Amino acid sequence: RTVYVNGDYLPETDAKISIFDRGFLMADGVYEVTSVLDGKLIDFDGHVARLERSLAELEMASPVTSEDLLEIHRALVARNGIEEGMVYLQITRGAPADRDFVFPDPDETPSSLVVFTQNKPGLADNPAAKKGMRVISIDDMRWGRRDIKTVQLLYPSMGKMMAKKAGADDAWMVQDGFVTEGTSNNAYIVKGGKIITRARSNDILHGITRAAVLRFAAEAQMEVEERNFTIAEAREADEAFITSASTFVMPVVEIDGVKLGDGTPGRVAPRLREIYLEESR
Ligand code: PDD
């Protein structure tokens, strides 16, 4: 595989980052994940806009322009022959000479940029979408700025492990009694045809797929309510689903071992998945 590191396209085995990079030492970095269908980037503008917001919130400089980023993404998709898959980009606050909590001067320490691809044939035609997924609920123990897409992914990784050990596919995180989001996706329930999802705030990542799906839902005259919901309410819902760049729209059929409705994906989530895939590619 060819990857991009700080200006160079290299075989992945030749790509190097300093051991003093703050991404490695302090998780001082942000990232984005963009899906590829039919060799084309999905929702790229949204991902770049969110990246710029994440960078600004952390007073971090981008080493390249958004036009450059698009070119790098396209170059890697072409070089690696990605028809369906993902492009991952990470920007960290670079590698100062001395480890220090204080941010280094950006003129002396440029940010690092790494971009790589993952081939995922069958991403759109994912059989998991027909079956639906099972989630467990766990405490949300992440930091308070989840609207910034940082590379601090340890708690989400732990959450996925808790789910795996419980024989489930993912975990929905709960704060003060209300669901925030999935470990790497936004969470929704459907009740009486109405789509319910938590409103945007610092508590959740403002999903790019979420924005598109809510727009398509409104265009299809589906009712959407942005508000908090509990696990108890979710268990009583007709349907549930998640959205993310890597899963698009994925039905949830079981929460903490309780089947939703008849335990099948239902109508709303599969329809939204269909619309999303049709409209975005
Ligand atoms: N995750 N919430 C969290 C915590 C996420 O990590 C993600 C994305 C989302 C959905 O955002 P979007 O629709 O823009 O992908 C919500 C990516 C896919 C990842 O970490 O792999």
Short description, anyone?
This protein is an alpha+beta fold and 281 residues long. The chain is 28% helix and 29% strand. A hairpin with a 2-residue loop joins strand 10 and strand 11.
Number of strands: 15
Say what the CATH topology of the largest domain is: D-amino Acid Aminotransferase, Chain A, domain 2
Please give the count of helices.
Answer: 8
What order do the SSEs take from the amino end to the carboxyl end, as H and E?
EEHEEHHEEHEHEEEEHEHEEEH
The total tally of domains equals 2
By CATH reckoning, the class of the largest domain would read Alpha Beta
Q: Indicate the overall shape.
A: globular
Query: Architecture of the largest domain, CATH level 2?
Result: Alpha-Beta Barrel
Percent range of helical residues: 25-40%
User: How far from one another are the termini?
Assistant: 25 Å
Which sheet architecture does the biggest sheet show?
A: 9 strands, mixed
- % residues in beta strands: 25-35%
Bound heterogens, unique = N-(5'-phosphopyridoxyl)-D-alanine
User: Pairing-aware structural class of the strands and helices?
Assistant: alpha+beta
Q: What are the segments in which pLDDT stays under 50 over at least 5 consecutive residues?
A: none
Mean pLDDT: 97
Using only C-alpha atoms, the radius of gyration works out to 19 Å
Query: What is the CATH superfamily classification of the largest domain?
Result: D-amino Acid Aminotransferase, subunit A, domain 2
InterPro entries: Aminotrans_IV (IPR001544), Aminotrans_IV_CS (IPR018300), Aminotransferase-like (IPR036038), BCAT-like_C (IPR043132), BCAT-like_N (IPR043131), Class-IV_PLP-Dep_Aminotrnsfr (IPR050571)
Keywords: Amino-acid biosynthesis, Aminotransferase, Branched-chain amino acid biosynthesis, Pyridoxal phosphate, Transferase
Catalytic activity: L-isoleucine + 2-oxoglutarate = (S)-3-methyl-2-oxopentanoate + L-glutamate; L-leucine + 2-oxoglutarate = 4-methyl-2-oxopentanoate + L-glutamate; L-valine + 2-oxoglutarate = 3-methyl-2-oxobutanoate + L-glutamate
GO molecular function: branched-chain-amino-acid transaminase activity
